[in-house]
Amino acid sequence: MNSEFTIAVHSLVYLAHKNDRMASSEAIADNVATNPARIRKVMSCLRRGGYVDTREGAGGGYRLTLDPAVVTLADVYRLMAQGSVIPSWCSGDPDSDCVVGSNMREVMDGIFCKAEKQMEIYFDGITISDVLGQIHECEEC
């Protein structure tokens, strides 16, 4: 899992909380606890994906364009981080004479692919509105 996914979810939840009002990259960065340049990078990807709209100038910023009750964490994961569960390196050597060494990479790739599919299925049941609702429940504690 990469941090861009977490930043994207946090930013979308924050925008959903803002109720159709614009939020600057500085305001989002302050809420996420990161720097505005990192927010702009993530928001650029979300804009290309159709999740946010931008307006430049005074009073500008980002605005959620999709219904937060429809956008799932799986949607955001597919846009921001798909494939990140699968490590970029795996042990073993396909040319090894050992049955373990020669097959470990293929077996582990299959395991990670199945894990990612299960995670996407789980994320598909959680919307941006659901996350915001859980945050509001924390206020009541």
What does this structure look like?
It holds the Pfam family Rrf2. The chain is mainly α and 141 residues long. 58% of the residues lie in helices and 6% in strands. It has helices at 3-17, 25-32, 36-48, 73-80, 99-123, 128-140, and strands at residues 52-55, 61-64. It has a two-stranded antiparallel ribbon. A hairpin with a 5-residue loop joins strand 1 (52-55) and strand 2 (61-64). Helix 1 (3-17) crosses helix 4, helix 1 packs across helix 6 (128-140) and helix 4 crosses helix 5. The longest helix has 25 residues, at 99-123. The protein is elongated, with a radius of gyration of 19 Å. 21% of the residues are buried.
- Outline the biggest β-sheet: 2 strands, antiparallel
Q: Please provide the count of β strands.
A: 2
Whole-number radius of gyration?
19 Å
Percentage of residues in strands: 5-15%
Counted by DSSP, the helix tally is 6
Distance from N terminus to C terminus (CA atoms, Å) equals: 29 Å
Mean of all residue-level pLDDT scores: 92
Global geometry: elongated
Strand order of the largest sheet: 1-2
Which regions contain 5 or more consecutive residues with pLDDT less than 50? Answer: none
Order of helices and strands: HHHEEHHH
Structural class designation? mainly alpha
Tell me roughly what share of residues is in helical segments: 55-70%
